């Protein structure tokens, strides 16, 4: 298809000839006859006379109609811009009967930055908007929003310069100062400045008349208007022309949802740069050779800046003006000074000042909530936790969070979950003014985790809790699936809360996290929370707490293969007296001795644990001990008695609706069937166990079950199913850092010519 040549189109006749050429080409491409004026009128809804006059050169089509017409006739994206330029050139020559003087066209864009980096996706989105057809009387609007220092103005100016040739009638710019230290620019003042740029020397006195004149002047022009740093939609809307040939770029820290909803603005929300883009920006600023000499320091600088463009620019400038200062020294300065390291004599490049303009624009309740959210210790926070942190009802908190999100001070990265940029969090923390807030949040996590952990039917007895602080409303979770989902979303926040909690709450958080971390096979995480719990327990004069600490540390060390440390802790726990918690001590000792290969000693501890759990009336403990007794007997080769224990465990689990124990006992029966040659029965048991373990979130034993299920499929001469199970098992082994089991499985897969997945 031959591209149109629009270079010589200066008259109405030239423009009409271009339309007729497009119509002929359209007919050839569609292998049909040329569209008649009547057919074109029917497709566009215009009058037959108007269509005829456009094609015969008697009337210049308005901008929106011309754009719609060439799109209808199949103009390519490249041709759309050229045709629009040709149409505007004809319109201008008809107005002046001569080419426009260069100094009569406003070119108000600020300079773009030298080292613009990244934002390819956003630039492409803006380019797509430019080529979209618009309805008559409408105008293309892009609303670029994001946090302070995220690079909104930089992006807008960069793109505007790239596309300036598409707007031959000029580019208008105004800084509306919506978030500056001084007064904002009112819409009438902005319009007056635009009229000055358009060479209107005697404007009407009335602001409404000036606005009308502004719109009239832009009605038949192709101009770009950049409204920078807008406060809100009300400041922007009076500045929108009703000209389809124009495009308006708006930048704001607010999301301008009203502009999107009512005026059809295209929202473009900016996030931080990618790690590669951030490194590139720094390397270009400090010099490639200097960056290459200290790649680790560059990565640390990127981390300190949390990939915020303004922070990166400040650090890059400091490095550039001090070329003799090694980059690692700059890293140390950021380590020591944090937010103060981003200060300067120019408020526009002082992070505290830049953030303060957003903070001071908030209403009192929102400002209070913003400061308190800076105290939240984890990577994010959900709505319920935030309500307790700020000490407000759920619905009021939801409104506050929506306001902070609209102001680009927090980000709702998943439904009901919010996070804050690291540097904004540092600023927010300095504004916090409620000493009880952290206790409310800690109580929320402790009480909600306690209720969720009880739903997981742990082997551990419940622990005493104090009433939650005033203003704290723990979340009520009603089923095991909800408990698992909550722990999966919150366990990092619970671990982070340990760092700020009082000693007793540090220990409680460790206790309530244990069952979930066990099921997930996260034993390194479990060790970390219990080391913190151990340090807290040492400061508390509470024998029950110290005994529980030794129990759990012993069990965790055992799972991690550190058997001597495990035995030391468990022996201390066992010597603490005849308490209800000793049932778990014997359970953990039995498991440890089994791991060490002494299955008979393991059986004796399991039998004692079973006796104690029955005395306590804990069905979960009874089912678990019957299960492990079946496991220990099977490992000893006593498969008949092992089967009896496994079936008794399964019956107990089903009688009391203990889903996890049903899964574990079923898996033991599968292991017994496999080792006694009943492979079809083994497959049935293990497939059932795999499903149940997945449903209860026990990824640790699911990996083992999948491994044995693969062996079973191999024994049944089904290599494809064996391979599928082994691949899943190997992935779980690797995720859980079970190196010995992963290596063993990889060797077996190699022996059977099954390729391991890449780690």
Automatic annotation (TrEMBL):
Q: InterPro entries attached here? A: Cro/C1-type_HTH, Lambda_DNA-bd_dom_sf, NB-ARC, P-loop_NTPase, TPR-like_helical_dom_sf, TPR_rpt
Biological source species: Kutzneria buriramensis
What is a single Pfam family found in this protein's UniProt entry? NB-ARC
- Locate the HTH cro/C1-type domain: which residues? 35-80
Instruction: Quote the protein name from its UniProt record.
Output: Tetratricopeptide repeat protein
Q: What is the lineage of its organism?
A: Bacteria, Bacillati, Actinomycetota, Actinomycetes, Pseudonocardiales
Molecular function as annotated in GO: ADP binding; DNA binding
Q: Which domain of life is it from?
A: Bacteria
């Amino acid at each position: 298809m031959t591209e149109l040549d629009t270079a010589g189109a200066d008259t109405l006749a030239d423009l009409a000839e271009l339309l007729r050429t497009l119509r002929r080409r359209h007919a050839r491409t569609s292998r049909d006859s040329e569209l008649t004026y009547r057919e074109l009128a029917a497709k566009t809804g215009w009058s037959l006379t108007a269509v005829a006059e456009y094609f015969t050169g008697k009337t210049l089509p308005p901008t929106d109609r011309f754009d719609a017409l060439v799109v209808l006739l199949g103009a390519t994206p490249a041709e759309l811009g050229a045709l629009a330029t040709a149409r505007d050139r004809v319109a201008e020559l008809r107005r002046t009967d001569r080419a426009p003087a260069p100094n009569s066209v406003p070119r108000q864009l600020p300079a773009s930055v030298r080292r613009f980096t990244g934002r390819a996706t956003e630039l492409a989105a803006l380019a797509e908007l430019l080529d979209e057809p618009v309805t008559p009387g409408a105008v293309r609007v892009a609303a670029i929003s994001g946090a302070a220092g995220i690079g909104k103005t930089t992006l807008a100016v960069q793109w505007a310069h790239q596309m300036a040739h598409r707007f031959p009638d000029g580019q208008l710019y105004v800084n509306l100062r919506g978030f500056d230290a001084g007064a904002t620019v009112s819409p009438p003042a902005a319009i007056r400045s635009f009229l000055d740029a358009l060479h209107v020397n005697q404007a009407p006195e009335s602001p409404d008349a000036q606005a009308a004149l502004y719109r009239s002047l832009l009605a038949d022009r192709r101009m770009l208007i950049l409204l920078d740093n807008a406060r809100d939609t009300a400041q922007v809307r009076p500045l929108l022309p009703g000209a389809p040939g124009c495009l308006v770029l708006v930048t704001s820290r607010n999301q301008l949802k009203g502009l999107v909803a009512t005026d059809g603005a295209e929202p473009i929300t900016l996030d931080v740069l990618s790690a590669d883009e951030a490194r590139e920006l720094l390397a270009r600023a400090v010099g490639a050779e200097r960056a290459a000499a200290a790649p680790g320091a560059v990565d640390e600088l990127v981390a300190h800046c949390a990939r915020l463009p303004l922070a990166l620019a400040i650090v890059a400038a400091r490095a550039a003006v001090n070329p003799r200062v090694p980059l690692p020294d700059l890293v140390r300065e950021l380590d020591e000074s944090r937010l103060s390291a981003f200060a300067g004599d120019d408020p526009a490049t002082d992070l505290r000042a830049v953030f303060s303009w957003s903070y001071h624009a908030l209403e009192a309740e929102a400002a209070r909530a913003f400061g308190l959210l800076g105290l939240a210790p984890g990577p994010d926070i959900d709505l319920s936790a935030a309500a307790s942190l700020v000490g407000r009802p759920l619905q009021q908190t939801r409104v506050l969070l929506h306001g902070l999100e609209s102001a680009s001070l927090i980000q709702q990265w998943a439904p009901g979950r919010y996070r804050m940029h690291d540097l904004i969090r540092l600023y927010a923390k300095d504004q916090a003014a409620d000493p009880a807030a952290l206790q409310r949040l800690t109580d929320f996590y402790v009480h909600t985790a306690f209720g969720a952990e009880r739903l997981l039917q742990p082997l551990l007895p419940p622990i005493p809790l104090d009433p939650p602080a005033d203003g704290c409303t723990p979340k009520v979770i009603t089923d095991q699936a909800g408990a698992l989902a909550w722990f999966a979303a919150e366990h990092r926040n619970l671990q982070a809360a340990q760092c700020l909690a009082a000693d007793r709450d540090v220990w409680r958080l460790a206790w309530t996290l244990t069952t979930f971390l066990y099921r997930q096979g996260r034993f390194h995480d479990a060790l970390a929370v219990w080391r913190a719990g151990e340090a807290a327990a040492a400061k508390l004069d509470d024998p029950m707490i110290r005994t529980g600490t030794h129990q759990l540390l012993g069990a965790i060390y055992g799972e991690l293969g550190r058997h001597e440390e495990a035995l030391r802790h468990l022996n201390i726990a066992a010597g603490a007296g005849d308490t209800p918690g000793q049932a778990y001590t014997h359970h953990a000792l039995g498991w440890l001795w089994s791991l060490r290969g002494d299955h008979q000693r393991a059986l004796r501890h399991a039998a004692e644990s079973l006796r104690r759990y029955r005395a306590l009336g804990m069905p979960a403990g009874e089912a678990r001990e019957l299960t492990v007794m079946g496991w220990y007997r099977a490992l000893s080769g006593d498969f008949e008695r092992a089967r009896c224990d496994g079936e008794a465990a399964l019956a107990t689990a089903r009688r009391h609706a203990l889903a996890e124990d049903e899964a574990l006992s079923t898996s033991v029966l599968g292991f017994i069937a496999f080792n006694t040659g009943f492979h079809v029965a083994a497959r049935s048991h293990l497939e059932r166990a795999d499903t149940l373990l997945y449903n209860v979130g026990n990824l640790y034993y699911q990996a083992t079950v999948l491994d044995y299920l693969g062996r079973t499929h191999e024994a049944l001469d089904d290599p494809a199913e064996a391979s599928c199970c082994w691949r899943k098992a190997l992935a779980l082994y690797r995720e859980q850092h079970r190196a010995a089991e992963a290596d063993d499985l990889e060797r077996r897969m190699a022996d059977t010519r099954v390729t391991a997945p890449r780690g």
